[in-house]
Design the sequence.
DNA sequence: TGAATAGTGTCTGTGAGACAATATTAT
DNA sequence: ATAATATTGTCTCACAGACACTATTCA
């Protein structure tokens, strides 16, 4: 049987909502880029951007190419997530997919997105063994329901089954794995800064961490922890009816 | 071009060395299972156990099958590590490999290993940008030299280049990624208990953590941290010229 | 003046590092 | 007695959670 090799991309970014109350910081949300399928199978359904890996490229090369095609962005964070190879994951045959996570800064997208690509707001509701992922925008609403099972008790290793979803292929599974990975890495690395503009206030940065980790953070504790990773710029922004804030930028601590 | 899909396994275990001083605990080391290639390419060189993924199975199924074939073990920890798909990683053509990590308890291997499979002691020497991995046993000695490069400064994302090695294919790269993953997970999960027998003393457990993490641990601190993960059995072992120790077993804290 | 965020200070509890002290056994 | 590990205790320091307090701006 002939095997085909593809890649699928989880392109995450932060969305800034307009706010009617000019004093408040703009509300933010995690957003994920999806494209609408134009062909069978799953015609007219949403799915992750992706495509076949060419003979002369690796899956990472292909992921870079697709990121550029969909967003016109280059040189953003891109890392292998996992390979999905269930036998019947694609009705067209044996198609395996190595998924990648990319984190981008939406404001860097100068030109338009590719024709079929649209950002969706992402929300996760997690209960004991059920995970519900909602993707929403003005056009559509997508629901993904997953069941969580323990595989190996000694290592708290879980697997996830797709109960139902209105997204193409097994992309509900891929999105779920991607979110878990993003959260894990948000805690243990500086990955989040890939989604931030060059200059940002500590309040904005805290908002982003709160969205990714899905919990409220304590102001002073957050400042303490983040302090070593950022450095102040000379710029100050007066952005509403409150004390002005300083712009900070990411500090490279490579030597340490 | 036709693509072939394979899996390679990193099967890790802990080795107990005999000790001439009967008072001391037996020295331990991390060991990795390798097989000797019987065919070209890389004939007579060592490589990771692995093989083609059949049409009717996933790479995880194939990994389970190969683990059983090489060790006669089933139901041990097995988790996807990463997919390796460099274009020229295999001289026979475009062959991509999804690698898995398995952790096993050597003492559970009742029958012999498969004919070509042998355990090697593993040692890692890490300098600034150089990583040197040595695999040794009575039969042979394998050296793997890698260069570490930064890819994405904001996320401390690195990639590794194989400088030279006397192991087949890109398996030096796979081993390096596997060790990094093992260390990361040793700190953040209970994965290590998959390599332990059902009953063990805290001293033995500490030895294993020290080998994996490659650093000395403080006795009392280790006991404090590990206490919540283990529970005492009624058995006590008098194993030398020192105070006898209690056998412990892994405690499942799934409800918490 | 009040709403809202920026930024600082401080108290408390937890947990890790360091190390000391005691226990127990075989040789 | 001695070497070696087992087990417990304790002191200190770093850090996170919680919350209070001050600063500053615009409407």
Sequence:
């Amino acid at each position: 049987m002939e095997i085909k090799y593809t890649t699928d991309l989880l392109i995450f970014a932060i969305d800034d909502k307009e706010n009617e109350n000019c004093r408040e910081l703009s509300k933010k949300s995690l957003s994920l880029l999806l494209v609408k399928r134009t062909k069978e199978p799953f015609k007219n359904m949403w799915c992750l951007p992706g495509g076949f890996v060419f003979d002369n490229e690796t899956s990472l090369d292909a992921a870079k190419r697709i990121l550029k095609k969909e967003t016109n962005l280059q040189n953003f964070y891109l890392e292998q997530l996992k390979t999905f190879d269930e036998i019947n994951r694609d009705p067209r045959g044996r198609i395996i997919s190595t998924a990648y996570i990319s984190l981008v800064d939406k404001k860097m997208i100068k030109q338009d997105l590719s024709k079929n690509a649209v950002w969706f707001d992402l929300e996760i509701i997690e209960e004991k063994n059920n995970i519900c992922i909602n993707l929403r925008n003005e056009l559509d609403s997508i629901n993904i329901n997953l069941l969580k099972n323990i595989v190996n008790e000694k290592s708290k290793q879980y697997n996830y089954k797709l109960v139902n979803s209105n997204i193409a292929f097994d992309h509900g599974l891929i999105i779920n794995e991607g979110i878990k990975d993003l959260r894990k890495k948000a805690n243990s690395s500086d990955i989040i800064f890939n989604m931030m503009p060059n200059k940002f206030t500590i309040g904005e940065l805290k908002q982003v961490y709160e969205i990714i980790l899905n919990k409220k953070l304590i102001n002073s504790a957050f400042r303490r922890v983040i302090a070593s990773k950022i450095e102040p710029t000379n710029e100050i922004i007066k952005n509403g009816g409150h004390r002005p804030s300083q712009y900070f930028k990411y500090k490279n601590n490579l030597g340490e």
In short: Chain A has a mean pLDDT of 94. The two ends of chain A are 51 Å apart (CA to CA). The first helix of chain A runs from residue 59 to 71. Chain A touches chain B through 38 residues (CB under 8 Å).
